[in-house]
Give the backbone structure.
Amino acid sequence: HKKNFLRLLELMKISSSLKSSDSLRIGCTLVISLTVGNKEIREKLCSIECAKVAIDSMKNELLSNDPSADMMEHFARVLMNLACSNTGIDNLVENDGIQVLIDSIRNNIHFSNHPGFVYAAIKTLHNIAIEHDEHRRTMIQYGVLDIIKRAQADHSKEQNLMSWCDRAKHAIESFDGPEL
Protein backbone atom coordinates (compact mmCIF):
# COMPACT_ATOMS: atom_id res chain seq x y z
CA HIS A 1 0.00 0.00 0.00
CA LYS A 2 2.69 2.50 1.00
CA LYS A 3 4.29 2.50 -2.47
CA ASN A 4 0.89 3.24 -4.06
CA PHE A 5 0.21 6.01 -1.54
CA LEU A 6 3.58 7.56 -2.33
CA ARG A 7 2.72 7.44 -6.04
CA LEU A 8 -0.63 9.07 -5.35
CA LEU A 9 1.01 11.91 -3.42
CA GLU A 10 3.63 12.34 -6.13
CA LEU A 11 0.85 12.56 -8.72
CA MET A 12 -0.84 15.24 -6.62
CA LYS A 13 2.42 17.22 -6.25
CA ILE A 14 3.12 17.12 -9.98
CA SER A 15 -0.51 17.92 -10.83
CA SER A 16 -0.42 20.91 -8.49
CA SER A 17 2.77 22.31 -9.99
CA LEU A 18 1.44 21.77 -13.52
CA LYS A 19 -1.99 23.19 -12.62
CA SER A 20 -3.69 19.99 -13.75
CA SER A 21 -6.99 20.35 -11.92
CA ASP A 22 -8.48 17.12 -13.27
CA SER A 23 -5.60 15.03 -11.91
CA LEU A 24 -5.65 16.92 -8.63
CA ARG A 25 -9.38 16.43 -8.27
CA ILE A 26 -8.94 12.68 -8.88
CA GLY A 27 -6.09 12.52 -6.36
CA CYS A 28 -8.13 14.37 -3.73
CA THR A 29 -11.16 12.20 -4.37
CA LEU A 30 -9.06 9.07 -3.92
CA VAL A 31 -7.57 10.33 -0.64
CA ILE A 32 -10.99 11.35 0.64
CA SER A 33 -12.63 8.05 -0.26
CA LEU A 34 -9.72 6.03 1.17
CA THR A 35 -9.67 7.89 4.49
CA VAL A 36 -13.38 8.04 5.34
CA GLY A 37 -13.85 5.61 8.19
CA ASN A 38 -10.52 3.88 7.60
CA LYS A 39 -8.13 4.76 10.41
CA GLU A 40 -5.35 2.48 9.14
CA ILE A 41 -5.17 4.11 5.71
CA ARG A 42 -5.59 7.59 7.20
CA GLU A 43 -2.61 6.94 9.49
CA LYS A 44 -0.50 5.66 6.60
CA LEU A 45 -1.29 8.75 4.51
CA CYS A 46 -0.58 10.99 7.49
CA SER A 47 2.77 9.27 8.08
CA ILE A 48 3.92 10.21 4.56
CA GLU A 49 2.80 13.84 4.98
CA CYS A 50 -0.32 13.86 2.85
CA ALA A 51 -1.46 17.00 4.72
CA LYS A 52 1.67 18.83 3.55
CA VAL A 53 0.88 17.93 -0.06
CA ALA A 54 -2.69 19.22 0.32
CA ILE A 55 -1.54 22.45 2.00
CA ASP A 56 1.19 23.04 -0.59
CA SER A 57 -1.44 22.49 -3.29
CA MET A 58 -3.69 25.04 -1.57
CA LYS A 59 -0.83 27.54 -1.48
CA ASN A 60 -0.20 26.95 -5.21
CA GLU A 61 -3.90 27.43 -5.92
CA LEU A 62 -3.89 30.71 -3.98
CA LEU A 63 -0.99 31.96 -6.10
CA SER A 64 -2.62 31.09 -9.42
CA ASN A 65 -4.18 33.72 -11.66
CA ASP A 66 -7.59 32.08 -11.43
CA PRO A 67 -7.85 30.22 -8.12
CA SER A 68 -10.68 27.69 -7.92
CA ALA A 69 -12.94 27.53 -4.88
CA ASP A 70 -13.96 24.03 -5.97
CA MET A 71 -10.33 22.87 -5.85
CA MET A 72 -9.85 24.58 -2.49
CA GLU A 73 -12.88 22.65 -1.24
CA HIS A 74 -11.28 19.37 -2.38
CA PHE A 75 -8.04 20.20 -0.57
CA ALA A 76 -9.94 21.23 2.57
CA ARG A 77 -11.91 17.98 2.51
CA VAL A 78 -8.63 16.02 2.34
CA LEU A 79 -7.39 17.99 5.36
CA MET A 80 -10.72 17.51 7.15
CA ASN A 81 -10.25 13.73 7.00
CA LEU A 82 -6.56 13.83 7.87
CA ALA A 83 -7.34 16.06 10.88
CA CYS A 84 -9.06 13.06 12.47
CA SER A 85 -5.54 11.86 13.34
CA ASN A 86 -3.00 13.42 15.70
CA THR A 87 -0.29 12.73 13.11
CA GLY A 88 -2.38 14.50 10.48
CA ILE A 89 -3.04 17.43 12.82
CA ASP A 90 0.67 17.74 13.62
CA ASN A 91 1.55 17.69 9.91
CA LEU A 92 -1.20 20.17 9.11
CA VAL A 93 -0.10 22.60 11.85
CA GLU A 94 3.62 22.28 10.99
CA ASN A 95 2.83 23.33 7.43
CA ASP A 96 0.76 26.42 8.33
CA GLY A 97 -2.56 24.72 7.62
CA ILE A 98 -4.45 26.71 10.25
CA GLN A 99 -3.32 30.01 8.81
CA VAL A 100 -3.88 28.93 5.20
CA LEU A 101 -7.46 27.86 5.94
CA ILE A 102 -8.32 31.00 7.91
CA ASP A 103 -6.60 33.38 5.49
CA SER A 104 -8.28 31.72 2.51
CA ILE A 105 -11.70 32.51 3.95
CA ARG A 106 -10.72 35.94 5.27
CA ASN A 107 -8.86 37.26 2.23
CA ASN A 108 -10.70 35.86 -0.77
CA ILE A 109 -14.36 36.71 -1.30
CA HIS A 110 -14.60 33.98 -3.96
CA PHE A 111 -13.65 31.38 -1.33
CA SER A 112 -15.66 32.87 1.54
CA ASN A 113 -18.79 32.83 -0.68
CA HIS A 114 -18.31 29.13 -1.52
CA PRO A 115 -20.29 27.19 1.12
CA GLY A 116 -18.56 23.88 0.34
CA PHE A 117 -15.10 25.30 0.94
CA VAL A 118 -16.16 27.20 4.07
CA TYR A 119 -17.85 24.05 5.43
CA ALA A 120 -14.75 21.89 4.87
CA ALA A 121 -12.39 24.55 6.25
CA ILE A 122 -14.50 25.14 9.39
CA LYS A 123 -14.92 21.40 9.99
CA THR A 124 -11.16 20.91 9.59
CA LEU A 125 -10.49 23.67 12.14
CA HIS A 126 -13.01 22.00 14.46
CA ASN A 127 -11.16 18.69 14.17
CA ILE A 128 -7.83 20.37 14.90
CA ALA A 129 -9.21 22.18 17.95
CA ILE A 130 -10.48 19.11 19.79
CA GLU A 131 -8.14 18.38 22.72
CA HIS A 132 -5.50 20.79 21.41
CA ASP A 133 -5.44 23.97 23.51
CA GLU A 134 -2.31 25.28 21.77
CA HIS A 135 -4.03 25.07 18.39
CA ARG A 136 -7.17 26.71 19.81
CA ARG A 137 -5.05 29.64 20.96
CA THR A 138 -3.43 29.89 17.54
CA MET A 139 -6.83 29.91 15.84
CA ILE A 140 -8.15 32.59 18.16
CA GLN A 141 -5.06 34.72 17.55
CA TYR A 142 -5.61 34.38 13.79
CA GLY A 143 -9.20 35.59 14.24
CA VAL A 144 -11.09 32.35 13.66
CA LEU A 145 -14.06 33.40 15.78
CA ASP A 146 -14.65 36.40 13.48
CA ILE A 147 -14.36 34.06 10.48
CA ILE A 148 -16.97 31.74 11.97
CA LYS A 149 -19.27 34.66 12.76
CA ARG A 150 -18.95 35.93 9.19
CA ALA A 151 -19.59 32.44 7.78
CA GLN A 152 -22.76 32.21 9.87
CA ALA A 153 -23.96 35.55 8.50
CA ASP A 154 -23.00 34.79 4.89
CA HIS A 155 -24.36 31.22 4.79
CA SER A 156 -27.33 31.35 7.16
CA LYS A 157 -29.44 29.13 4.86
CA GLU A 158 -26.83 26.33 4.84
CA GLN A 159 -28.00 24.27 7.84
CA ASN A 160 -25.11 21.79 7.83
CA LEU A 161 -22.58 24.63 7.67
CA MET A 162 -24.41 26.47 10.48
CA SER A 163 -24.23 23.34 12.62
CA TRP A 164 -20.48 22.97 12.05
CA CYS A 165 -19.89 26.66 12.74
CA ASP A 166 -21.58 26.20 16.13
CA ARG A 167 -19.64 23.01 16.82
CA ALA A 168 -16.34 24.60 15.77
CA LYS A 169 -16.96 27.69 17.90
CA HIS A 170 -17.73 25.49 20.90
CA ALA A 171 -14.64 23.29 20.33
CA ILE A 172 -12.38 26.33 19.89
CA GLU A 173 -13.68 28.05 23.01
CA SER A 174 -13.58 24.89 25.19
CA PHE A 175 -10.12 25.00 26.69
CA ASP A 176 -8.86 21.99 28.63
CA GLY A 177 -6.20 24.03 30.42
CA PRO A 178 -5.71 27.74 31.11
CA GLU A 179 -7.20 30.06 28.51
CA LEU A 180 -5.24 32.74 26.66
Residues 2-17 form the longest helix (16 residues). The mean pLDDT is 90. The two ends are 43 Å apart (CA to CA). Residues 51 and 146 are 25 Å apart (CA to CA).
